[in-house]
Amino acid sequence: MTIENGVRIPGRIGPGSRIGIVAPSGAVPRDRFERGIAVIESMGFSTRVHGEVFGSHRYLAGTDRQRADALHRCFMDKAVDAVICARGGYGALRLLPYLDPALIRRHPKPFIGFSDISVLLWTFYRYCGMATFHGPVVTSLAGNDAPTRDALARALCSGRSVQLKGAAVIKEGKAEGPVVGGNLSTLSHMLGTPFAPRFGGCILMLEDTNEPTYKIDRMLTQMKLAGCFEDLSGLVLGAFTDCGPMEAIFEVVAELFDAWEIPIMAGVDVGHGTVNLTLPIGMRAVLDTAARRLIYDRGDQPGTEGGWA
Fold it and tell me: In this structure, what CATH number is given to the domain that contains residue 151?
């Protein structure tokens, strides 16, 4: 583990390392879970399932206390080198009153997930001072393609620099800061709670799925009026899968952020598409729209275009 700008950067792992599986959100479909486990093991890792992954409490993978306790045990388990979530869905928000930030802070490990897991990515960065990874969950790995799997392996095993490529520029410029964010719907639901996010000084990445343009407009407007975007350094749009014409979403974003002199890049392969490149959360990066790049300089070796080095 290293510490950069007050943020704990979990150490790298390698082939043969054990990845712990937790289910902090929705009930887990067994077939897709088992296919995702097979993908992880084909990448050279072993796995350990923590808690009752196939537990069921209505639409959740167990009660709030059960899911929080399983997460704590996985971080404390000395035989586990990294933690990946079984699936997203819904339920991570309900865990926040039960989490022990000090315990997680004492046992930093690579932690991977996306969608509903965005709640935990923000919480671990903000309240545990720990970098994480916005990347696939076990069940999504069953349907992701090779670039997604390769990006995940490099994120966990490589200390090299990384560059993620954007497809479009909404607003030109260059900015630097820690990268935060995740699923727009999930993050907007944190408003009005003691854990509500404020992204000042950060480069914010947002993605979503199955949300029409007017709902994306509504969520962004609510977050803007709540002050979430004050002093934002830059904005990156990932995939907005099945959300309607991207041109309409770009127009909404351009209008809502018109008064702020920040760079905005879109079309990064992060989110609910078949390509879901792993994005470090809490680590510093440079957003350069002239090069259409989000560049993490890990200080080791240069990255390669469009993915991890």
Answer: 3.40.50.10740
- Separation CA 260–CA 228 (nearest Å): 13
Q: Among residues 115, 118, 185, 233, which one is catalytic?
A: 115
- For the question of residue 115 being annotated catalytic, the response is yes
- pLDDT digit string (tens) for 242-265? 999 999 999 999 999 999 999 999
At 297 the pLDDT is 72
Residue 303 lies in a domain: no
Is 207 a residue of the active site? yes
Q: For residue 69, what are the domain limits?
A: 2-157
Q: Which of 134, 140, 207, 233 is catalytic?
A: 207
Residue 78 belongs to a domain: yes
d(CA 47, CA 58): 27
Query: Does the annotation count 25 as an active-site position?
Result: no
Q: Which among 232, 265, 229, 269 is positioned nearest to 250, based on CA atoms?
A: 265
Retrieve residue 145's tokens: 């393609």
**Pick from 157, 176, 197: which residue ends a domain?**
157
Measured between alpha carbons, how far is 27 from 49 in angstroms, rounded to an integer?
A: 14
